[in-house]
Amino acid sequence: MNFAPSKHLQQLKKGIFHELAEAKRRVEQSGTPVIDLSVGSPDLPPPDFAREILSSLACDGRHYGYTLGAIPGFNDAVARFYKKRYGVPLDPETEILQLIGSQDGLAHLGTAILNPKDVVLVPDPGYPIYEAGVRMAGGHPLGMPLTEENGFLPDLTAVPEDIARQARMLILNYPSNPVAATADRSFYEEVIRFARKYEILVVQDFTYSELVFDGKTATSILSVPGAKDVAIEFNSFSKTFNLAGCRIGYVTGNAQVLNILSDMMSHTHYGVFYPIQQAAIACLEQGESFIQQQVKRYESRRDTLVEALSQGGWNLQKPPATMYVWANIPKGWASIDFAFRLLEKTGVVVTPGSAFGLQGEGYVRMTLTQAEGDLQKAAERMSHFVKQGVR
Ligand SMILES: Cc1ncc(COP(=O)(O)O)c(C=O)c1O
Fold first, then answer.
1. How large is the average pLDDT for residues 7-32?
2. What atom of ligand 1 comes closest to residue 127's alpha carbon?
3. Do 18 and 167 fall into the same domain?
4. Using CA atoms, how far apart are residues 48 and 287, in angstroms rounded to an integer?
5. Is residue 108 domain-shared with residue 143, that is, in the same domain?
6. How wide is the angle at C-alpha 147 spanned by C-alphas 216 and 166, nearest 5°?
7. Predicted confidence (pLDDT) per residue in 257-298, tens digit
């Protein structure tokens, strides 16, 4: 027998992280100490109170059945959090849907909503599941270039009229991975006007909603009047509360779309582990000071890394949000060659910008998921590498 992946799966690019991990292993074996700034998995623990809830409930043998969806209290807690933090009222019954991480919803949305060959506008560079989710559903992703000149926001006026008419979905991600940019209310107002005009579903990924620096806060797209007619917004506990491995998130907004996704999930999902749901509720209700500490920590790491790199000759700005630094690399390098050569010569692992789309060429992404001492060391090694002009 010969088994082959489906045509949809064959269209997906192989993840770069696999190759990086392999190269990292070789460098480690050669004795070079590695500092990994490639994967966006939080290095810090969730709040103590969340771990206590998780461990005590996990010891109780009654909590091991299928939950089949949100437990009582979860949607109410999300609704209160949304009202308090973003001023957005949500109906807990119809405008909130629990997910096994936002990735889960982003991956399944295309299959629930799209028909073969449907056009979807995706950010380029963008988080890879946007394109992959569309392709797995047989849809056709079209990149919207995010450039430094446009503040890493897509230029909707540059979308050709015929493409706008064909598009079924438009995917956004602010604060964004990998470009670490934010979007303001006026941008979302323009998006909502565009979506209404061309009858497009707007999908905003708000996974980094709380990791915003310099005393600022992020805007929820749902706070724009009329947004719920055309938009849904994904959120997560992974980055805000460091619960990444627990796999819990949610999507809010347009009730009809959430109902379709929920229908689909009734075939594929049996719900999130009860103790995890309880820990997540507690995070939403008691997590305010934890979020403040978390923001301070990442902000300070950002300052350390960016200041050290700037002094070392790198040309980059302090990002306003997220756990990433999106950095220009010296001219003449392909980002993939730069990343592998940097790893081989210095032991610092970064992700080549091209892994996130064509427009990512010329950049690398660094994560802030290491202690400040290691970020400082990594910056020194990277600066030395760039100054030497190694090829
Ligand atoms: C932009 C973005 N969206 C979604 C996810 C997935 O998050 P979750 O852990 O909630 O599935 C990530 C994870 O890195 C991300 O960077």
1. 88
2. 1
3. no
4. 10
5. yes
6. 105
7. 999 999 999 999 999 999 999 999 999 999 999 999 999 999
